[in-house]
Amino acid sequence: MVSPASLVDQVAPTLRKNAAAYDESATFPLESLAALRESGLMGLLVPAEFGGMGADLATFVAVAAGLSEHCLSTGQIWAMHCFQVDAIVRYGSPELTAALLPRIAAGDVYLASVTSEAGARANLFSATTPLEADGDRLVIDRTAPVVTGGTAADGYLITMRASPAAKETEVSLVYADRADLRTEIVREWNALGMRATESIGMALRGSVPAHNVVGRPGGFATIARESMVPLSHLGWSACWLGTARGALDQLVRWAAKSGTGRGQQGRSDLFFERIGRIRVSLELVSSYLTRVREEVERARRENRTLDAPRSQLQLNTLKIVASELTFQAVNDMVQVAGLRGGYLKDSELALERHFRDLRSASMNHSNDTLMVGVGALSMLDRGVTLI
Questions:
Q1: Contact call for residues 349 and 330 (beta carbons, < 8 A)
Q2: d(CA 35, CA 100)
Q3: Residue 246 and residue 241: Cα distance in Å, rounded?
Q4: Which homologous superfamily is 4-110 in?
Q5: Cβ atoms of residues 113 and 156 within 8 Å
Q6: For 150, which of 100, 174, 202, 212 could close a Cys bridge (C-beta 3.0–4.6 Å)?
Q7: What is the pLDDT of residues 166-195, one digit of tens each?
Q8: Quick count: other Cβ atoms within 10 Å of Cβ 273?
Q9: Which fold would CATH assign to domain 112-214?
């Protein structure tokens, strides 16, 4: 069996070749997705019994970083797909998993997430639009301001209020196949960075079988805390780290070739100090990512909840630290490379694109909101039990 690392090497030339063009046009990287479908990586987290690779979280993190070294938009698209897969594997009904997981493993289904809602009070754990029963089917009429890869998706995981009588905090997660929906673009995507994610606004209308509810009705909060949030923070952090790591690798090679940083007696202390600070930042992100990933794996092995304050605090901290330090690292790389190597759009280092892409990291699930959560959770962890 070919290793996931080898498969990353196999698709890397396609991702690398197309990254700039898809960024320029702000269109979804269909050619890169096709390479991922053919490689088998879309089924990385699907259990072997359903035809997938049944990989662990260490492999998931490594692949997310490896793909993002060549194209952060594609890496993040793939990682977000995997968040959805993990939720279905862990909480899907027997009917849904039997029908859907083999298709995902075969590369036939790319999953998009529909969890955003318009409005100042909107958050992951509440929903205003209700599911309505129609015999043995559930009616979906949902609009979302942000759906990454919505036009390319073969299926969607959608959050909705469990029923018209349910509270807004009683949220259900439901799978909808594209064939069961009518979709409409309600907002285009023309962003500073992450342009190839094509995170458009969409309206989705249709109906699905009742067994397409993932987990118990109204039980999305458990799925989010035990599956989707942990994997999102691990996956996003890995993607950002992979991009920054790849950028630093290119920078040091470029500097060695071009002579950047040379003073009268070799390289200047300032050059080494800047490179050193960049490397320290990436080492810190890598170390914390590894430790949090190990904590999540241990909790899963021991069938222990990740809803405890300490676990939530560490997951939120990972996302904050990874998003801020990787962006700062690339910002510093632009300074080291200078106007020609770092700032120009057509530089061979592509630092300008990495800078724009990583600028979004702190706003993807706002760091300001997460830091408030870290502070509140810290008040519940009176022993200050550090990782």
A1: no
A2: 20
A3: 8
A4: Acyl-CoA dehydrogenase/oxidase, N-terminal domain (1.10.540.10)
A5: yes
A6: 202
A7: 999 999 999 999 999 999 999 999 999 999
A8: 10
A9: Butyryl-CoA Dehydrogenase, subunit A; domain 2 (2.40.110)
